Known about the structure:
- The protein is of the alpha/beta class.
- It has ten helices and nine strands.
- It is 44% helix and 17% strand.
- It starts with 5 loop residues before the first strand and ends with a helix.
Amino acid sequence: xxxxxxxxxxxxxxxxxxxxxxxxxxxxxxxxxxxxxxxxxxxxxxxxxxxxxxxxxxxxxxxxxxxxxxxxxxxxxxxxxxxxxxxxxxxxxxxxxxxxxxxxxxxxxxxxxxxxxxxxxxxxxxxxxxxxxxxxxxxxxxxxxxxxxxxxxxxxxxxxxxxxxxxxxxxxxxxxxxxxxxxxxxxxxxxxxxxxxxxxxxxxxxxxxxxxxxxxxxxxxxxxxxxxxxxxxxxxxxxxxxxxxxxxxx
Length: 250
């Protein structure tokens, strides 16, 4: 599977200082991959900078949204943009260097045999750096909580560095996904598993953002706590009775 058939969805909100460096790092690691910058009307001029960078590089595209509606909405808009174009792989990652572009070749390689590839902090070889104890507890605890409630074996359910085959995104009814933040990441992986898709995890090193402030909030964490129970008892969870879905979760 050739890298040039892939596009990275890169949501931005006030990421002006990070945008040019992250695009350069992405194209150093994966030169043939396209990038879609999804800007939520950043007041710091990120969107305008993205337009200038796109005018200079045909691998860079920009999707402007009228207002900030959350990370999940931004990714859904990006997935929709990608699916009306001939990309075979659709990736998602953060623009703040917490997701290191040097891991992109590993995700792309794993997509040759898996339908969804997760950049995982919690498999052998994966780790976090520059995190305080509180953030470690929230992240690890959130993944463990979701795993137990949903009965999954995926170790890093809340991570946002992912690669999907287009067939996965076409199958999981994207318009009905209502979650944002941590819950969005859990929900799209859960839906993929329920439909029998193969999910693989590759180790990544996750660092704290280099510039700017984290977008994490108490509301995002509480949404994830509530949403995993809704997922468990939703109509989607009933599909786990299908043999293919059940096998994918075992």
